[in-house]
Design a protein that fits this description.
Distance between the termini: 28 Å
Radius of gyration: 19 Å
Number of strands: 0
Order of helices and strands: HHHHHHHHH
Strand content: under 5%
Number of domains: 1
Oligomer: single chain
Length: 230
């Protein structure tokens, strides 16, 4: 209909949801790391974290998609890494309400529970400790984001470009807003987790198919060599 490939639309929807969930997840992790800082340096740490995540997404986008195009073992490695991402996301989605509340207050820089403090129950730390924690998380989560988008886009280059551009914009402009959105509507994060799990399994199977003969698995894997033979 309208000359649009349905598989492109499916990939694009998956890419947008992945971007939404991972940008919000990254922002929450930044907020958790900054929650234990004094008020005068908290905003600085959050700004550094968001800028670093934005730059890292651009950097990984330039190299990761080219590496995945080589297929084989790199696709298997990418799929396994995304499975680990799913495990991390699951743990973060089941994090304590107190930790999540502290992160949200830090991101919004407001006393949302009217207890007279912002992230008052978070453990105290120095700016250096927070920045190190944030940068380590940014490196991991930016790579996760680019891998997940590349896997969801499959062979649709336009979906890949849109997804990578969106991931940069969401992280650089709307990360705190998205984190608040996911805090209020938890089901969005769970849907995103399921999509990333689907992408991870599909990516790993596609890589494995380059080494051993696998049967067709609906939605997850198509044996292109067998299909071409017919």
């Amino acid at each position: 209909m309208f000359g649009i490939d349905p598989s492109f639309l499916t990939s694009l929807v998956q890419v947008i949801l992945i971007d939404l969930v991972l940008a919000g997840d990254n922002a929450v992790v930044i907020g958790m790391a900054a929650a234990g800082l004094a008020t005068d340096v908290r905003r600085k740490a959050i700004l550094i974290g968001i800028l670093a995540a934005t730059v890292l997404r651009i950097f990984f986008a330039l190299i990761t998609t080219q590496l995945l195009a080589l297929g084989g073992g790199l696709l298997i490695a990418g799929g396994v890494l995304l499975l680990y991402v799913c495990w991390k996301m699951y743990r973060e989605l089941t994090t304590s309400a107190a930790d999540e509340h502290n992160a949200q207050e830090a991101l919004e820089d407001s006393d949302t529970n009217a207890d007279g403090t912002v992230s008052g129950t978070a453990p105290r730390k120095t700016l250096r400790q927070a920045i190190i924690q944030i940068i380590i998380a940014d490196v991991s989560m930016s790579l996760d984001n680019v891998l997940a988008v590349a896997g969801a886009a499959q062979h649709h280059f336009e979906a890949l470009v849109i997804g990578l551009a969106l991931s940069v914009v969401m992280m650089g402009v709307a990360a705190s807003f998205i984190a608040g959105l996911l805090h209020r509507f938890r089901w969005i994060a769970w849907v995103g987790l399921l999509i990333i799990l689907f992408v991870a399994v599909r990516m790993a199977l596609e890589g494995l198919g380059g080494f051993v003969a696998l049967p067709d698995i609906p939605l997850l894997y198509t044996n292109h060599a067998a299909a071409a033979a017919h």
